[in-house]
Amino acid sequence: MKLNTPLTRGTLVERYKRFFGDVKLDDGTIVTAHCANSGSMLGVRQPGATVWLSPNQNPKAKLDWRWEMIEVDGALVGINTMHPNRIVEEAILDNNIKELTGYKECRREVKYGRENSRIDLLLEDPGLCYVEVKNVTLKRENRAEFPDAVTSRGAKHLRELSQMVKDGHRAVMVYLVQRADCDYFTVAGDIDPTYEEGLKKAIAGGVEVLCYQCKLSEEEIVLDKPLEISL
Question: Positive or negative, the Cα torsion across 83, 35, 63, 70?
Fold first, then answer.
């Protein structure tokens, strides 16, 4: 996924109220950027860290900047949760996810399920394949982990995917790690034991689980390679 505009570097002052980040640009100006990430951002919100912003091109937007990346221990981490669906969709269309090749159609944000949900990607022909994408930014030791906070919404998606399998369809959970410095993926059961248990039940019920990490630069974020999954 190519980033539409050149990024602007700054230093994080603080992230607050979930959707705001104050950033000191290199010229000394303090700006407030929209933070498109509703999670806790554990480990990727340190004041003083180098961050990258993009200019907000939406004329209806209240803020002039969007927070895109942060540097943690020398590695870039993508924190914008608006990007993962597009990154995975592009990878599928380019046949870069071998487990999800062979489908003729790919649609986004399709209503489905019994709990008023929308599937991130629906692959069609042959059959139906429901693909849910989760953004992963948390790293502890050498592990990429999800979630970084209790997620009732994530648990709901696991139930919905499990039901699709029961209904005779294929269902796949894709964990997209927006960083390139992890050795394997696992679930943060100490943060959300209910989600961990839900994922185990979903897998037992036939839901497939994939994890891929990204390669990031100031120009693009692209799917890189699969990560081993350890549960």
Answer: negative
CB atoms within 10 A of CB 103: 19
HSE at residue 194, side-chain half, CA atoms within 13 A, is 10
pTM confidence score: 0.96
Asked if residue 112 and residue 46 are part of one domain, the reply reads: no
Closest alpha carbon to 147 in 121, 175, 119: 175
**Phi, then psi, of 59 in degrees rounded to 5:** -65, -20
Predicted pLDDT of residue 44: 98
Q: Where in the sequence is the domain holding 35, given as residue range(s)?
A: 8-78
Please tell me whether residues 35 and 109 are part of one structural domain.
Answer: no
Same domain, 106 and 220: yes
Q: Per-residue pLDDT tens for 170-212? A: 999 999 999 999 999 999 999 999 999 999 999 999 999 999 9
In this predicted structure, the answer to whether residue 58 has a pLDDT above a threshold of 90 is no
Asked if residue 90 belongs to a domain, the reply is yes
